[in-house]
Amino acid sequence: MSQQTHRDRLVELRRELHQYPEPAWREFYTTSRIVDELETIGVDELYVGPEVLAEEERMSVPDDDELGRWYEQARQEGAREDILERLEGGRTGAIAVIERGEGPTVALRVDIDGLLREESIDDDHVPATEGFRSEHAGAMHACGHDAHATIGIGVLEAIKDSDFEGTLKVLFQPGEEMVAGGKPMAKSGHLDDVDYLLAVHIGLDHPTGEVVAGVDGFLAVSHFLAEFTGEPAHAGGKPNAGENAVQAMATAIQNLYAIPRHEDGATRINAGDVGGGSATNIIPEQAYIEGEVRGETTHLKDYMQERADRVLESAAAMHGCSVEQSKEGEAPSAESDEGLVEIVHDVSTDTRGVENPIRRDSLGGSEDATYLMQEVQQNGGLAAYVGVGTDHPGGHHTSTFDVDEDSLPIAVDLLSSSIREIASKRP
Amino acid sequence: MSQQTHRDRLVELRRELHQYPEPAWREFYTTSRIVDELETIGVDELYVGPEVLAEEERMSVPDDDELGRWYEQARQEGAREDILERLEGGRTGAIAVIERGEGPTVALRVDIDGLLREESIDDDHVPATEGFRSEHAGAMHACGHDAHATIGIGVLEAIKDSDFEGTLKVLFQPGEEMVAGGKPMAKSGHLDDVDYLLAVHIGLDHPTGEVVAGVDGFLAVSHFLAEFTGEPAHAGGKPNAGENAVQAMATAIQNLYAIPRHEDGATRINAGDVGGGSATNIIPEQAYIEGEVRGETTHLKDYMQERADRVLESAAAMHGCSVEQSKEGEAPSAESDEGLVEIVHDVSTDTRGVENPIRRDSLGGSEDATYLMQEVQQNGGLAAYVGVGTDHPGGHHTSTFDVDEDSLPIAVDLLSSSIREIASKRP
Amino acid sequence: MSQQTHRDRLVELRRELHQYPEPAWREFYTTSRIVDELETIGVDELYVGPEVLAEEERMSVPDDDELGRWYEQARQEGAREDILERLEGGRTGAIAVIERGEGPTVALRVDIDGLLREESIDDDHVPATEGFRSEHAGAMHACGHDAHATIGIGVLEAIKDSDFEGTLKVLFQPGEEMVAGGKPMAKSGHLDDVDYLLAVHIGLDHPTGEVVAGVDGFLAVSHFLAEFTGEPAHAGGKPNAGENAVQAMATAIQNLYAIPRHEDGATRINAGDVGGGSATNIIPEQAYIEGEVRGETTHLKDYMQERADRVLESAAAMHGCSVEQSKEGEAPSAESDEGLVEIVHDVSTDTRGVENPIRRDSLGGSEDATYLMQEVQQNGGLAAYVGVGTDHPGGHHTSTFDVDEDSLPIAVDLLSSSIREIASKRP
Amino acid sequence: MSQQTHRDRLVELRRELHQYPEPAWREFYTTSRIVDELETIGVDELYVGPEVLAEEERMSVPDDDELGRWYEQARQEGAREDILERLEGGRTGAIAVIERGEGPTVALRVDIDGLLREESIDDDHVPATEGFRSEHAGAMHACGHDAHATIGIGVLEAIKDSDFEGTLKVLFQPGEEMVAGGKPMAKSGHLDDVDYLLAVHIGLDHPTGEVVAGVDGFLAVSHFLAEFTGEPAHAGGKPNAGENAVQAMATAIQNLYAIPRHEDGATRINAGDVGGGSATNIIPEQAYIEGEVRGETTHLKDYMQERADRVLESAAAMHGCSVEQSKEGEAPSAESDEGLVEIVHDVSTDTRGVENPIRRDSLGGSEDATYLMQEVQQNGGLAAYVGVGTDHPGGHHTSTFDVDEDSLPIAVDLLSSSIREIASKRP
């Protein structure tokens, strides 16, 4: 395939995925489209939906109504009926395997979900002017996962007919944006025999031509939802008869932010989405806090979570309320292994289009690829998180985010060459 | 008209209004229907919409979209085009005047708005089983204002052909539920020459056959909406860069409830509807508190409001936020005048269907009829708030509220007889 | 005894007591001096110290060091050794009984303790210029209990040789200022056979010549001390290792003041004396709140106490602290009985020096005479709290408080005449 | 002087100073005794009290009563009258200068103040058993500043008769424990011509025989005192009439701890000593927070201070109070310069008694030597903070802290050799 044809093919697929962004556990169209491609390519093993997830680890799964709407929408947009059936109940994602002889097992993880954000209609927003803007009102690929899925397909194609010896697994992971899908895939069993894991992300404020062989500095994170329930009462007539869930919530908010700093390093807390009550003249019986805790290490995140739990329980008790907590998403911290970073960095210096190879950089955010990295590392394998620069006009998660499609072939070349290099270096 | 026919007529009108409940400033169908009735009856003067309101005093007016939707709905339900035109922009309500010679000017105030609440579909909820349940999803006459409007029409009919000498004004007031419509009507000028004002409410936990000649104990009330605006920032990467509107909100809530009690009597405070933020990983830039303060007297309500203002301003300043406050509704306290209570009480002992005449009772809630009462009293007139019992299966403002339609003719008889008695007693 | 001699005698005793003010459970000199007087007068029964107290009900008892210091001081000031021995351990107070035949048992309660406040040295403060200012640095009779004790003695003298038939008990109660002594005396058994109880207070913003036959409106009150204990840690090096008692305290304060108002009437809350921590660089391990709750009724006070307990417990738990609560004082609400108020009011209209007899007035504060009133009322007896006006330059509890000594004979006359009248009216 | 004599001499002086510990700005005896020694040694210039301080920079100066008491005590303990006169008003400390030809100006800073802490009387606390325990009840040298002053004297003696060429300044700084004396000495002008500055501390959890050539990781710190003033009122009778300083304080505490973490590094906040109110039945009119903010850099400390100021001001405003803030102490962060660390480290490897020379270590606390280091560095000079290990049974600031006196000659040798080496290396 010529260089141009190769690029065209990747661009075409990415643009198609871009038009149908689907958030966590609703990636029905996306998974169907990916499986379609995988069958076209012809892989040795193909796992779909429930086969790629430890189901009991799924977090932030929407209710049946919500799932039903996206499911139906995917069907109407042409998702394959036989694949849809396998994804019922929001069990999305896929894993493709290529086996080529005796070498090591190398895995590549790409994520596939979109965000709940309305895409820009600006004149200088390419998807809008070029006709591949999101078809889903209020949803958007604003973090490049359309590109990631495309890169996963591209790498499979590149490896398939190469001299690679070993086993390649490409993991198409759902639900990364809510840090909800990493753990179920990490615990699915598919990682058990993986010797090397690469995860990839484009952008991250690096322009096209820059590559970071090892991204570090992931903050461990946990998303929680705390729902307070008290007793309503008429605020004029019987103020004493209520148990005020909004007072519980406010007391909790004040004390969550006041959790002590930790000697061992950076911690974070945010009550990012809160609310309660229904009418000015009713003592509020319901309130909620959706928030997150983070830590420079998993240990620090756990410290924050324990303190937060104590605050939430006590604030509820103080106001005669109960509180239900659920974990909405979670990811540990992680570090890229030097052995793997070394290989990717060396490859990157020789990759067409890479003008500025960087060995390591720090992220300062969170990502649930860390679950997969940790899983592999705990089994004695090596893992690295690779950044592939792309010019992106708007910031990640904003309505004008877009990728420079020139970065697609760069990523595919870098990753497939790295995978072949890893296999060849193995004793 | 026979007793039975009289009752049937009232019931028919009440049931029709019941099917089309409209909240504050959206009483398009209701006003149209009332004006229709008034033209049929034939009154001496008829004022509609802007003619009955001091417009600058309107509170809680919805935005144009919201008004537009209800306006269009009323049109489709058959509201008269010529009347709708006069109500544009949410200027609803009407005043009808009958002039009969030299006597005093007596006014009767009835309110006409519904509530945003889904009506019950229970088997023992009469409007559901008898086929006159609300046609408007999420809206309901759950406080009997459909009956009030009907009573207003009934009293006009009863007085029209009676021996009454003087001037009768019946005020069909919008927006009572949000204590938003009383002040604009009180300040419209139509109260300036009123010597006697009666306001009426059915139910109030009194069964059919009970009548309270003078209801007292209204708590002065003020509804406020406080909107905090800060600065967003990434909660993981730049927590210090944000100005956290949710922290401002939580600090305000804690301190609002902690406003000191007052030596002069009962006060109330409630943060009844609050919220803020948008995502767990963003330092919240927006938050709001919709709440209310009350006092046994207007002075006490003002004390609470002043302290609340101070809390809201300081909480915003503490967290680098701004806060915008708007008054969403307001009503003073008020007392029924003994001179008028005496007359109504005497009449009630002779009214058919009244088995338990009560002189005075206390409400413990709020009502913006107090604005009209205060206006009349300040001009040297007398005012009384009359309660007419009705068996109501569900409590006021609940989805199973309903009225015993037998109370409709009782109310009409009581009020029209009282009005005639007032006029005849005047020197 | 002539009128003048009578007055001189009362003035002399009051001035002597004024010089030796002693706070709760430290009334060693005062009790000794009172017993001395009682023995001089000659009463039929005389109970001292432990004999007048249900010891397990004593509240706010100081520690042994504090008691020892006041005990020793009293000894050095000439308190009788034989009486002091009976008061050991801070068991102060006395009850004197006169028995005169078959009539009813009438009791008069006077309180005898002083306050911890430095007395004024102003030129227009009579005790300072006339040479009977407090000899105890930092302590003062700033609420007239020196006058009350004197009045108790005066009434005994007046009744002793009168035509009174029945039994008179005069209760010299310790520890009123801390609402700590009323309950132990009420539960001592001495009230069991009391048919009528009068309690007396001078001043209360009424001038000399005014008398209130029945004082009402006592707020039930409870004083509490909550002590938080956490864990210290270096604030720079190990902020996470501490459990912060000051954070617990601050959370509690905010939420104590925010306890909801009650539909049934007035409530009060105050965190009047708080503190915590020791050094800026240590996470505070200790903190305390000394506060009070009040209610228009005992029920309302209990509501406040229950909510306060919940707040204190939860605030401690939230911050990993324990909290110890102790009740430092308590008194219920009470009402004066009309039967007794009537008698005292009638007598007051005939009492020399009374220019303005008032039937009833409301206090708006708290007093533990209510325990004794309640005890008598629960046994079927009647009780009244009598106010005797006195010109007082400074307010109660201020350093310039003083009494007009002309009010002493007025009080003695009013009360002894009332007691005789009560006995004579009894069937 | 023999090795043994040298040690004895140091031990004798240290033990004498240990018996008379004096806290910030009260080092009257201590300064007098140091000046006495300096005159005995014979230095070229000697500055005392006001001559060594930029007076307007003094923080945490006690009131006149407190100063007067310590001044009088020092006199009675034999402090020289002529020196005491120069220290009036709490202007303590001294600087001694030796000039030896053309070389560079090297300064050594030692601090001289004690702590307000009762010294142990334990059997294994050497000062207690050897008879040199503190003579000042409640005060103690619990951080080794007695040793530091002694080392300063020892270094002067050692340099005086050596081959040193240049100028040596030894700075005897008052008020380090409250981070109150560093800035006034830094801004006194005496640092203007200093080319090299060494500061020294013993212990820091390093045993005798360890030396740290360059201590780093000082957290910038600021101590503040915030005093709230509101309005008192009777908590039962007029709760609304007060302006509650304790509510302001509690609101501030909650929000101080909730100041957002900072992306640039570690921050700290502590409300370490708080209190308010006076009686349970009075709405509190006074309250205070004595606290501290810290930051990994001065910039981070300033961020915390700005946010804290905003919280304190707004909390006061919210409750109708005023707040007065005073800075009680302050110190920036600082780093030891490699050039100087190198020299000291090299010397330490050759110093008798040094078994474990360490190049660098991190403190994690605060110290106002950083003001002097910063001053020298801003003028183009180099600075290093040197740690000299000493076995200390109790931790710093505890009642059983003591030093191993063998570390005294080690420190003197290390520092005097380093100073000579610095001078000789200068081009």
TrEMBL record, chains A, B, C, D:
Keywords: Manganese, Metal-binding. The Mn(2+) ion enhances activity. Residues 227-314 form the Peptidase M20 dimerisation domain. GO terms for biological process: folic acid catabolic process. The keyword Metal-binding applies. Its cofactor is Mn(2+). This is Aminobenzoyl-glutamate utilization protein A. Mn(2+) 1 binds at H397. It comes from Haladaptatus litoreus. It holds the Pfam family M20_dimer. Mn(2+) 2 binds at C143, H145, E177, H201. The keyword Metal-binding applies. One of its GO terms (molecular function) is dipeptidase activity. One of its GO terms (cellular component) is cytoplasm.
